[in-house]
What does this fold into?
Amino acid sequence: MTDIVQFGEMVPVPGTGEIVDMADPVSVARALDTLRDFKRQVADIEEMLADRLRQERATQGTRQLNYDGVEVKFGTDSFAVYDADALEYRLRDAGMPEDRISEIIVATVERKVRAVEAKKAAAVNPAYAEAVELSREIVEKRQSVTVEVAR
It folds into this structure.
């Protein structure tokens, strides 16, 4: 995390040149909105610059670019998505043994709790309520903050 220099209740906002009075919630909300807009602009420029380097890579026909101590590396530009059912059928049809197919095609099951239904069950029976409560964990998360500024 960046070290933030704060002068009393005043905080400078990098990239915007703005000084925010932390004691004024309206000023804080407007600064947050401005900073988020700035981040979007930075992200757009970042993507434009990355696209230019991708074009240069394609032009040069190399895996990476090297310029006087500046090395530019690129991640993969694709990944494979398989149709598991079709692959299983085709491997079996090609004569692959079942045990080998089961090493390649793996069945997964994901079980989820429908919280609304669990709460309904807990409301009608104390034993259900105890089971639900003992099986539930509250995980803290960073609370989101949405700012809407009339322009």
Remarks:
- The mean pLDDT is 91.
- Residues 75 and 146 are 33 Å apart (CA to CA).
